[in-house]
Amino acid sequence: xxxxxxxxxxxxxxxxxxxxxxxxxxxxxxxxxxxxxxxxxxxxxxxxxxxxxxxxxxxxxxxxxxxxxxxxxxxxxxxxxxxxxxxxxxxxxxxxxxxxxxxxxxxxxxxxxxxxxxxxxxxxxxxxxxxxxxxxxxxxxxxxxxxxxx
Amino acid sequence: xxxxxxxxxxxxxxxxxxxxxxxxxxxxxxxxxxxxxxxxxxxxxxxxxxxxxxxxxxxxxxxxxxxxxxxxxxxxxxxxxxxxxxxxxxxxxxxxxxxxxxxxxxxxxxxxxxxxxxxxxxxxxxxxxxxxxxxxxxxxxxxxxxxxxx
Lengths: 150, 150
Description:
2 copies of one chain form a homodimer. By secondary structure, chain A is an alpha+beta fold. In chain A, 22% of the residues lie in helices and 32% in strands. Chain A has helices at 25-35, 39-42, 44-48, 59-71; strands spanning 15-16, 21-22, 83-90, 100-112, 119-129, 135-146. In chain A, strands 1, 2, 3, 4, 5 and 6 form a 6-stranded antiparallel sheet that branches. Strand 3 (83-90) of chain A pairs antiparallel with strand 3 of chain B, so a sheet runs across the interface.
């Protein structure tokens, strides 16, 4: 475990990895029952007749699982991982039961906050990959990162 | 309950509402324990010392709750609500315990799919509002919407 990073510790092109999570069918059903109760996320038989042709995880479930991986991953920021938003979120292919996910993060850009001189804003591309190294979610997010006290 | 909509039923400027959900403190803690275990989402005392100054919901929790509202809301699409991604996701202010959320959807754009002639792609701005009508999440998403069979 290395010390959490300040804005000054980050630079464009740095990459950070995470551990993995295997998406069990029950996880898909439990999440979707609470947050995205649509047939293709809930029921194998109903999912067969859908656009997906089978049971798939909600995209927001993939997002939430990716967040968990990031919180426990290598990119540790002082004060925590706090996102202002994303300029792009894509789900290029579905997540199926049994898929094993991990996230790769790449620093795309850095700038100082105009309103808060003690903070920087860091653009990070988070790519969630399945066990075949295929991207299942790509999010370009902007994070709030404290500057190192001088 | 009106019939679910096809691509041809949608037009720019249409708006659709949802019901509401009240975000109880236990919901915030349960979600964050599983998906975003950071102090400002987990523990009132620890949250006081964070950037937020108090317990707030994970942005991905707000996203998931918004999805639930949408699935049960007025914008019903044939085949379900299926997003390809978002070109913008923002959390302009945090969601606090006790906040009551709802979503307003506005159709921003429509185009036919080039790869799938039986589908259209519909850009929708989903704004999640709290009980003071303040936006807590804004997502501009692209949804896959079937064309009416001719």
